[in-house]
Amino acid sequence: MTLQYPTIADCVGNTPLVRLQRLPGETSNTLLLKLEGNNPAGSVKDRPALSMITRAELRGQIHVGDTLIEATSGNTGIALAMAAAIKGYKMILIMPDNSSAERKAAMTAYGAELILVSQEEGMEGARDLAQRMEAEGRGKVLDQFANGDNPEAHYTTTGPEIWRQTQGSITHFVSSMGTTGTIMGVSRYLKEQSESVQIVGLQPMEGAAIPGIRRWPQEYLPKIYQADRVDRIVDMAQSEAEDITRRLAREEGIFCGVSSGGAVAAMLRLSKELENAVIVAIICDRGDRYLSTGIFDAPN
Question: What is the pTM of this model?
Answer without folding.
Answer: 0.93
